[in-house]
């Protein structure tokens, strides 16, 4: 028996996606549930979508109590949700045309629906698909921490190590929690001049002055090795 070629596999995947698109965009009497996203209606087969994950089964049990065959979702864009529905029908995800904002949104709703395999796939693809940058790494890192995506966390940490100067200079770390910033700055592989580390800590404390705790201040200031800062550098900013 001969193995099927990769090209045939591509054709099969394409046909599967076309079939899913047909089921979702053409009128069928057996489509019995509707999502409303950004004023657009996406009608689907409840039996298929409901049993795509434990999370969706829980969601549907809540929605069914409302006795309404229509649910409005406000935490996702139409663009991302239609891609998500295609994945539920085919187990294949089309990343073409998505940007970093879409990827963050996708990861959030995939986690909310407990689509475990899709979450794992997204976490492994964020860098290779170009979603990770100095402008988004902190957002992905915070999400990885919130949802306990260890692989994504490790990817973000390594990215910050590799782009430490750009991350600091562009202040893209200001919205991550203090404990994550401490973790990043304490790494020997996060290389930057100590005066830049000091500036980063000061900028974070200034930005988060209303919510920062004394414990956070102590932990952050402890990441700065003052003996590596020259008197002239210190006098220039203090």
Summarize the structure.
The chain has 238 residues and is mainly alpha-helical. The chain contains 13 helices and 3 strands; from the N terminus they run αββααβαααααααααα. The chain folds into 2 domains: 7-126, Potassium Channel Kv1.1, Chain A, CATH 3.30.710; 132-237.
Task: Provide structural commentary.
- There is one protein chain.
- The protein is mostly helical and 238 residues long.
- The chain has two domains: 7-126, Potassium Channel Kv1.1, Chain A (2-Layer Sandwich), CATH 3.30.710.10; 132-237.
- It contains 13 helices and three strands.
- It has a three-stranded mixed beta sheet.
- Strand 1 and strand 2 (40-44) form a beta hairpin.
- It is elongated and about 75 Å long.
Descriptors for this entry?
disordered N terminus, 13 helices, single chain, Potassium Channel Kv1.1, Chain A, 59% helix, elongated, 2 domains, 238 residues, mainly alpha
